[in-house]
Write a sequence for this structure.
């Protein structure tokens, strides 16, 4: 396995606002995600998990330090393609059907509509969602929508999947289904996976566990349950 | 308490809808109140103008046997009467004059005795054409002078029944512009008036009259009568209706006081009576042109403030979880609507005041204090209704069906079509409008019925249905069409969008298809706005064009030179006129008199090749062919003649029929018969009277009568102000000709057309149309995009580039703008045709073609494009990097 990290944070910190009202969401942080790594990001609400994921995904800039993607390239190269994100809440485009939502990342890289649909249907089949292909997001349950979001994240064959509390709004049963889907996909494609969660039983299923508290990250802990 | 807290919260954090609704209310209120101002200023100027056109307000005729002096003193005592002078009338058996070697006779006529200072006391009654100025001395009416070939200085004999002829020396030739009123049968009902004033008239100074006609009247009292001519104070109520009521009431009152010794010919009331229907037309114009704008402002407000409905429902759901009742929720919404309404009304009324001041120089909203309050209150009420409809009604509807679960589904899949679509209401409305239109196109249609003398003016309200149905049907049909394209036409649409959207085209069209309720609404609103702006602009331009044509029709051209009677100038006289600075071209127009049977009519000899352009002839003025076709016939067959419809009927003429006219020979001055062939009907002609006249080939007339004398020169200016050119010509030609210019004419003309001064309304309407167009396009689209910020943010977070987000934004913008503008233009065309037809009577004669003000329409199109572009650019800029706030929501 290559040791060139997919993403590397060097002293990266994020402060919201300035002056008296400034909130330090992320203290200066050093971390790296290697290809194929499966990492759980644990921490209570407000500890800075989302902030860190946004920085790693290149959706936001650090106020101090740097974030780099040595194995991928510049930030412009991250999306659509190498880096895929699964958001905490519903993130399907309301006016598009499930199949169209899943095919969207392909359309964004100029894959023709017919081919994009075929690949989207295949991705849905992988997750056992074929029956939902022509439904609109409004017609799905929360768990179904999250699994479709996973299918959409996987369709571009990403090397790094960032999931921000994908099970946060789901019951245990559906949460498990979603985590299963993510882990299974990572297994199959060899993609690295970082999943933010505050659920210990979810975290237990990952190789590594990072813990966050008040914007401070510790990457020391090997297993979450210990 | 909850209400206040919530309102504070709204003002602090949810300002968007409040501001949008407030502005919408302000625009609607300002539009309505400005129109009130327009109506007030137009109607009061109508009263003023109608009154100013009357030379003698009242002609009080002393009863036979009554003492004229008593009547005079009684009239003079009447409050409101400013001046009163006695005028005596006597019948004559005819006039006689010698000119050249021949003696000319006329039929019976009238001799008037006027006191000194009469012409000054009643300006407008006597217009001196030649000879001594000032309206003193012996004055011969122009037609009489023409019949007698008399000029100033000539001697005229006056026939007196049973007495030897009297002799007078003519001091001046005069025109009596208001002969109809002057010679009215006082006391006779409107229908029993003589059809035409007498042709043969001489006016004598009171002393001369007494000396010459006194003996006659003493012998034959039945041949003489005395009238007291009175001028009233014109400080009248602004509304023509009120002025009419006041003046006619006053006249009846005076008649009672006179107790049978006198009867009043109330010309002022007659003029005001006409102005009443003009005022009604002004109000109808408001209905047709103004009301759609106000309704549109309301629709736009509702649409703009419905943006963010989802979020508000969530807010309400939140309140509900805290235990708020339906009543409280509605109360909160009502308070919000009240706030938006109150502020909007205040802003709107202030804006209307400013607009009114700018456009009309009046800041009152109505024609009187009562009307002003009514207009102000009415506009305010409409404003409140709009605010309520935009905020409170949806809130109430939500509150009733609201569950804590919150947001309802907005994107339908196979929604059932709305009820109006299923029942085809749009098509039915359009068919209805078409039927009314068709009915209005056939004969006998009149929008306003104002029988003279009857106090009631009635409107054919049924005809008003046509535009209402057309607006509703058109709007709904646009909605249906846009909806249809989005639902069924996705494939072709995707193909159209491919060049810009690339591989995303299918996705974009899918998105648009599922948002079709939103897009169809936006396109419909834009189409309605475009239709409003377009129809208003075209209608107003056409109206102005017709007003211009009307003024030209009665003046003949920019400047008209009419040779004085007795002066004989050939076509070569044009050269002297051409030499005057500012003259572009001069068209000679023969003016003769011709007998058809016993009837004397005006005859115009034209140069067929040039008159059409020089006289700006319109097809609507003729029947039996277009202007060019008829003139071609006159050119090809020189003995062709155009006659009035009345003559056609009287003589049962068919095209090609021979008509013999008796025209005066230029050499012998005797009348000789000249044959013509009837080829068409002339209803209107430059300088011609409204009733009957002939149009024939000038060369043929010249040959037949041995005289090429020209009566009138139609002068076109080269862009120099006609008044300036007119003044130069007056200075050059002196008393040998009368010079009138179109600028003068415009201010005195009394038809419906120019009576309603539309310029102010045009400005208001176009201004509002611009505002509405910008709102309908830019704001609606922009807010729609804003509403879907989340969707775009997700796309951006998935890696969509600005260009790709742009594909979504621009595709929608292009689609909505194109369909809205194109369908709106089609609607505008149909509506304008309909308006012109339904408002027949405003347009008299009807216009040949619609005048399209491309400049202002182009400007509003540019405005729409700019607004849409701005909305798109702002949206895309905002999404260049998804906002952190948006991401946190994901
Ligand atoms: N846009 C923002 N503006 C201000 N404060 C923010 C913003 N985003 C996050 N924060 C603050 O930063 C801290 C970390 O937030 P976040 O990364 O969302 O935590 P987590 O995802 O672990 O719940 C919190 O205190 C939060 O209030
Ligand atoms: Mg978070």
């Amino acid at each position: 396995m290559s040791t060139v990290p997919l993403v590397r944070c060097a002293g990266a910190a994020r402060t919201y606002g300035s002056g008296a009202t400034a909130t330090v969401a992320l203290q200066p942080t050093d971390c790296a995600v290697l290809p194929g790594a499966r990492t759980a990001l644990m921490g209570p609400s407000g500890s800075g998990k989302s902030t860190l994921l946004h920085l790693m995904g290149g959706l936001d800039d650090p106020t101090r330090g740097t974030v780099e993607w040595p194995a991928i390239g510049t930030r412009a190269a991250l999306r659509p393609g190498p880096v895929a994100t699964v958001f905490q809440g519903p993130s399907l485009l309301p006016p598009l059907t499930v199949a169209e939502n899943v095919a969207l990342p392909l359309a964004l890289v100029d894959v023709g509509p017919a081919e994009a649909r075929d690949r989207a249907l295949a991705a849905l089949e992988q997750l056992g969602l074929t029956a939902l292909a022509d439904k609109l997001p409004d017609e799905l349950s929360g768990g179904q929508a999250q699994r479709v979001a996973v299918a959409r994240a996987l369709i571009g064959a990403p090397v790094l999947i960032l999931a921000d509390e994908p099970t946060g709004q789901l019951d245990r049963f559906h949460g498990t289904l979603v985590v299963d889907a993510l882990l299974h996909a990572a297994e199959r494609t060899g993609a690295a996976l970082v999943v933010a969660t505050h659920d210990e039983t979810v975290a237990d299923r990952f190789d590594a566990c990072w813990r966050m508290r008040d914007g401070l990250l510790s990457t020391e802990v090997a297993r979450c349950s210990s | 308490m909850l209400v206040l807290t919530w309102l504070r919260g709204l003002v602090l954090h949810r300002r968007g809808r409040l501001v949008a609704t407030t502005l919408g209310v302000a625009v609607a209120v300002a539009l309505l109140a400005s129109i009130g101002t327009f109506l007030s200023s137009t109607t009061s100027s109508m009263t003023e103008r109608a009154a100013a056109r009357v030379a003698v307000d009242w002609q009080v005729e002393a009863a036979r046997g009554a003492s004229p002096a008593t009547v005079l003193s009684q009239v003079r005592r009447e409050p409101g009467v400013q001046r009163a002078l006695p005028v005596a009338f006597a019948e004559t058996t005819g006039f006689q004059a010698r000119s050249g070697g021949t003696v000319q006779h006329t039929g019976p006529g009238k001799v008037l005795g006027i006191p000194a200072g009469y012409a000054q006391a009643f300006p407008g009654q006597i217009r001196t054409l030649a000879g001594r100025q000032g309206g003193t001395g012996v004055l011969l009416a122009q037609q009489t002078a023409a019949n007698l070939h008399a000029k100033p200085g000539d001697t005229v004999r006056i026939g007196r029944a049973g007495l030897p002829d009297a002799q007078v020396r003519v001091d001046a030739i005069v025109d009596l512009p208001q002969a109809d009123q002057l010679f009215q049968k006082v006391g006779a009902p409107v229908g029993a008036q003589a059809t035409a004033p007498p042709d043969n008239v001489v006016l004598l100074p009171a002393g001369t009259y007494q000396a010459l006609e006194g003996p006659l009247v003493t012998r034959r009292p039945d041949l003489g009568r005395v009238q007291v001519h009175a001028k009233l104070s014109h400080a009248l109520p602004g509304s023509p209706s009120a002025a009419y009521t006041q003046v006619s009431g006053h006249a009846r009152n005076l008649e009672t006081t006179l107790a049978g010794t006198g009867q009043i010919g109330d010309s002022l009331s007659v003029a005001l009576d006409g102005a009443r229907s003009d005022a009604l037309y002004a109000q109808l114009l408001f209905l047709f042109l103004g009301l759609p704008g106000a309704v549109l402002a309301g629709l736009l407000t509702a649409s703009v403030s419905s943006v963010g409905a989802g979020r508000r429902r969530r807010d309400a759901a939140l309140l509900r979880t805290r235990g708020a009742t339906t009543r409280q929720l509605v109360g909160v919404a009502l308070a919000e609507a009240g706030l938006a309404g109150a502020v909007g009304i205040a802003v709107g009324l202030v804006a209307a005041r400013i607009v009114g001041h700018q456009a009309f120089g009046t800041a009152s909203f109505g024609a009187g204090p009562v009307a002003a309050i009514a207009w102000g209150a009415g506009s305010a009420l409409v404003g409140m209704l709009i605010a309520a409809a935009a905020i409170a009604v949806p809130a109430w509807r939500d509150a009733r069906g609201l569950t804590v679960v919150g947001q309802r589904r907005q994107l339908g899949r196979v929604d059932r079509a709305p009820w109006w679509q299923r029942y085809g209401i749009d098509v039915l409305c359009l068919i209805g409008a078409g039927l009314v239109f068709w009915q209005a196109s056939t004969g006998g249609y009149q929008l306003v019925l104002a029988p003279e003398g009857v106090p009631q003016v009635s409107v054919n309200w049924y005809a008003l249905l046509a535009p209402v149905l057309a607006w509703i049907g058109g709007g709904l049909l646009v909605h249906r069409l846009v909806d249809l394209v989005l639902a069924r036409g996705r494939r072709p649409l995707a193909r159209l969008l491919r060049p810009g959207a690339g591989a995303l085209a299918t996705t974009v069209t899918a998105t648009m298809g599922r948002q079709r309720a939103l897009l169809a609404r936006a396109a419909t609103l834009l189409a309605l706005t475009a239709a409003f702006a377009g129809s208003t602009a075209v209608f107003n331009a056409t109206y102005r064009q017709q007003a211009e044509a009307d003024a030209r029709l009665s003046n003949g051209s920019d400047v008209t030179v009419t040779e004085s009677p007795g002066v004989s100038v050939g076509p070569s006289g044009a050269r002297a006129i051409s030499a005057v600075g500012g003259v572009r071209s001069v068209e000679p127009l023969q003016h003769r008199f011709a007998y058809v049977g016993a009837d004397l009519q005006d005859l115009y000899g034209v140069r067929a090749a040039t008159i059409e352009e020089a006289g700006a002839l319109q097809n609507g003025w003729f029947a039996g062919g277009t202007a060019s076709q008829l003139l071609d016939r006159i050119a090809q067959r020189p003995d062709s003649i155009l006659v009035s419809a009345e003559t056609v009927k009287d003589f049962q003429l068919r095209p090609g029929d021979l008509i013999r006219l008796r025209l005066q020979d230029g050499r012998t001055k005797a009348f000789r018969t000249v044959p013509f062939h009837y080829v068409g009907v002339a209803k209107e002609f430059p300088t011609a009277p409204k009733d009957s006249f002939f149009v024939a080939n000038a060369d043929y007339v010249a040959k037949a009568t041995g005289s090429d004398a020209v009566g009138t020169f139609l002068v076109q200016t080269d862009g120099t102000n006609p008044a300036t050119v007119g003044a130069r010509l007056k200075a050059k030609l002196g008393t040998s000709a009368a010079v009138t210019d179109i600028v003068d004419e415009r201010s005195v003309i009394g038809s419906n057309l120019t009576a309603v001064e539309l310029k102010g309304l045009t400005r208001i309407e176009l201004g509002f149309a611009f505002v509405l167009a910008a709102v309908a396009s830019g704001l609606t689209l922009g807010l729609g995009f804003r509403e879907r910020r989340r969707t775009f943010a997700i796309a951006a977070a998935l890696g969509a580039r600005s260009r790709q987000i742009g594909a979504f934004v621009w595709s929608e913008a292009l689609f909505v703008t194109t369909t809205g503008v194109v369908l709106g233009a089609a609607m505008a065309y149909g509506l304008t045709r309909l308006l012109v037809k339904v408002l027949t009577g405003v347009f008299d004669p009807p216009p040949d073609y619609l005048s399209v003000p491309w400049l202002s329409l182009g400007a509003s199109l540019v405005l729409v494009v700019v607004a849409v572009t701005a909305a798109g650019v702002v949206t895309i800029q905002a999404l260049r990097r998804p906002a952190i706030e948006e991401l946190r929501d994901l």
Notes: The radius of gyration of chain A is 17 Å.
